[in-house]
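Look over this one:
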Amino acid sequence: MSDTETAYTQLAERHGYGKSDRYHAILKFLMSPLQARMAAKLPMPNDELAAEEGISEEQVKDELENLYQKGVIFPRNFETREYFRFSRAVGQLHDATESLYNTKVYTPAEMKQVWSLWWDFVNNEWYPDRAVGMKTQERPHMRIMPAWKAIKDIPGVLPHENMKAIIEDAEKVSIVSCSCRVRKEAVGEPECTYSHDMNCLQFGRSAEYSAGRGHGRTLTTEEALAILEETEDDGLVHEWPNMDTVRTNTMCSCCDDCCMNMVPIKEHEVPWTNYYAKSRFEAKNDVEPCDGCQDCIDRCQFDAINMEKVEGYKKLKAVVDPEACMGCGVCVLACEPTSLVMQIVRPPEHIPATPEARR
């Protein structure tokens, strides 16, 4: 095996796909042979990379900058572009190489090819593999974050379930396009039924990364809150780490049409609660004002609401299944008769403590 093939294989092996032809195809599109050899040697200093490859340090710098702009490698310092490393995992490479709003590293035709390669890989290999892992993991990795507008008037909302306060508290917030949603649209699959694209909020270091690389846009607090409201009105579901933290890198607002978490769960029949912890909230319907419009059923991504015959009423009424309800709150926001409300049904201890290493 040549040094170049060895480099591609080593990089694919780091992500668990050393024998995947599809993953090799992605890496070979993202990196030239020279770039692959360099990426495999990171975090080797620039002068050593230049000596090993027989090129100038200036060319090393240019090649690394190109890989950074493509989303393949990440520097410790976003301003000085020093101490690069290769992507840590499939998910990081997936998001960084597909969410390229406002970047100029590819022609439109090349960008479509990036999305097509990822589409082939995720549907045939990554999603099935993710589903296997989800079915066997010991506890949920993520937690459903309730829509702020659905819980804002409820006493007892905790800091780590209050998205409005989290955004207001954040030192830096940016917005990036949803890699899952733009890929699906680009490959010509049926259009996502949820309209929003630029809806992934990034915080802290991730916000610095997206702003510095140029594939995202820095937001004011007011702009971030407006986007939060738009995503909730659109019916998207917020995801958050399953711990009592008010700090994370990214808050995705997701749909079961596109999401790299939700799609494998639905396609491979993984119980929702294997991967997502429910929020502390649950939707409850007062059948008296319910007019049977079924808007809540259309909004619920967890199939937790059914139209049922209720004693004393001729018209069918919306009934929430408490076992299936994940506590996202998007149904409440669509209920014009205001018969649906959120209520706290779980104690603060429902949300695990943040590990010391993450504090």
In short: The chain has a mean pLDDT of 94. The first strand starts at residue 73 and ends at 77.
